[in-house]
Design a protein that fits this description.
- It comes from Halarsenatibacter silvermanii.
- The structure is a single chain.
- Helices cover 28% and strands 31% of the residues.
- The chain contains 5 helices and 7 strands, in the order ββββαααβαβαβ.
- It has a 5-stranded mixed beta sheet.
- A hairpin with a 2-residue loop joins strand 2 and strand 3.
- 41% of the residues are buried.
Amino acid sequence: MRVGSGLDIHRLVEGEKLILAGLEIPAEKGAVGHSDADVLSHAVIDALLGAVGAGDIGEHFPSGEEEYRDISSLILLERTAEILAGQGFEVINIDITLVLESPRINQHKETMKGNLAGKLSINKNRINIKATTSEDLGFIGRKAGIMAQAQVLVEQLEESSRGGD
């Protein structure tokens, strides 16, 4: 078994969409990024890649590449799942913490979990999403940014071409 950790932060501005786990969430401000700026999916992707020693999101999906401009991060997550499967890994569980002042996301959690689970081919009960505020402190408290942190546990099911541990 291996553990991975991911962290992502995006700036929030008026006039942009707020996409979390592939779901557009009604909000006053949205996240800015080269892709769809899905901070939650990006944190999960980095955690998964880290768990299997496959680098980070920027190495696989560089922000300077036109191919990734405005791309759905769920597509990137699906490609990340292919990397894991190619190395013989299965996702055991994912725990995500989203830090934002608004909007509230409780009513969207099940849909977000379903979106992630579908791309990873796992049951959504293996995914937990929590949200908290920064108590009006810092850039998040000023509603200038959003942050997500993810931890994952993966298990290697078969010998990979990289050799056993």
